Amino acid sequence: MASVSEAGCRPVQPNRLDAGAALMMVVLCACWGLQQVAVKMAVADGAAPMAQAALRSIGATIIVGVVVLALGRRRGVIPMGTIWPGIGAGLLFALEFALLYTGLSLTTASRAVVFLYTAPFVVAIGGHLLIPGERLGRWQVMGLLAAFGGIVAAFADGLVEGGGSIAGDLLMVAAAIAWGLTTLLIKGSVLSRTAPLVTLLYQLGVSAVALVVLALVMGADLAIPLTDTVIGAMAFQIVGVASLSYLGWFVLISRYPASRLSAFSFLTPLFGVGAAAAVLGDALTPAFAIALVLVAGGIWMVNRPS
Predict the structure, then answer these.
(1) Residue 124 lies in a domain
(2) What is the number of structural domains in the chain?
(3) Whole-angstrom Cα distance, residue 172 to residue 178?
């Protein structure tokens, strides 16, 4: 493993993903897709989505904080110059969820997914303009469009059925922008040269406070019923998603181009659909196969060798 200096500096990143990084992104997207099912199962047992988001950040903050102390990083755990970017990343993360859950109450799930997954374009455009080494070529742009086309194909039935509202759609676009800006802030600031555990602790700790405040302001019910389903769903979200998968994401984003990593996020809703079919008995349509081909082809185009 490449050495890391006390300042947290890392070697110059490669301009594309290797097989290990690509496989890790697939695993992370599968984890995030399963999270969608876990949230639905907990909602069915009476746990409000905003309460789940707040508890997830609180629980993961405790876990990551204990790990940081156990690794002997008590001294110098918060490097100079990272505080404001770290707070900004945490606030953007909390804002994304506030916009997401508000938007979901005003539009349909299919429309929400399509508009939310404009986020990789925010990362691609921002990285192209602002971050050295993140410029995209023609093939990468075509790949993003193909992958996004796969998402549209997967949720086309829900789009043509109508429903939703312009306000809800705009809130989902705003959530996508907040998601993209979080990635760009981490990649384009000193956080990209900071130990991933520190970056994760910032995001979790700040978002935990912000999400509780937002939930209270929005009048959301923070009570969590302690059923077996809710306990299992929250354990997966706290340990599997917020602690382990987010740490893996920050490790990758510190080493590889953000725009190429973000292209893999188009797999997340497809994993969610597949998991819902396997766990909840939801039906799969032929459009799902078309979507999978388009997304996989798009990811290859984004990450193809120059």
Answers:
(1) yes
(2) 1
(3) 10
What Rg value do the Cα atoms of the chain yield, rounded?
Answer: 19
In sequence order, the 6+-apart residues with CB closer than 8 A to the CB of 65 are: 201, 205
Residue 37 lies in a domain: yes
What does DSSP assign to residue 15? S
Within a domain: 5 = no
Q: Following CA atoms 26, 32, 37, 40 in sequence, which dihedral angle do they give, to the nearest 10 degrees?
A: -160
In sequence order, what DSSP letters do the residues of 227-288 get, joined into one string?
A: -HHHHHHHHIIIIIIIIIIHHHHHHHHTTS-HHHHHGGGGHHHHHHHHHIIIII-PPP-HHH
As a whole number of angstroms, the distance between CA 281 and CA 294 comes to 24
Phi, psi angles (nearest 5°) of residue 207: -70, -30
Cα gap 12→8, rounded to integer Å: 13
pTM: 0.83
| CA 26 – CA 21 distance, rounded (Å) | 9
One-letter amino acid of 47: A
> Residue 65: how many CA atoms within 13 Å on its side-chain side?
12
Question: Any idea which residue has 């990362």 for tokens?
Answer: 123
The Cα 119–Cα 92 span in angstroms is 13
Characterise 12 by phi-psi region: left (phi > 0), alpha (psi -120 to 50), beta (else): beta
- Top pLDDT among 268 and 218 is at 268
Find, among 27, 39, 278, 29, the residue nearest to 147 by Cα. 29
- State the pLDDT at residue 236: 95
pLDDT at residue number 272: 85
In angstroms, rounded to a whole number, what is the distance separating the alpha carbons of residues 34 and 280?
11
- Does residue 43 sit within a domain? yes
CB atoms closer than 10 angstroms to residue 26: 14
pLDDT in tens, 196-245: 888 899 999 999 999 999 888 878 778 889 999 999 999 999 999 999 99
The whole domain housing 53 covers: 19-303
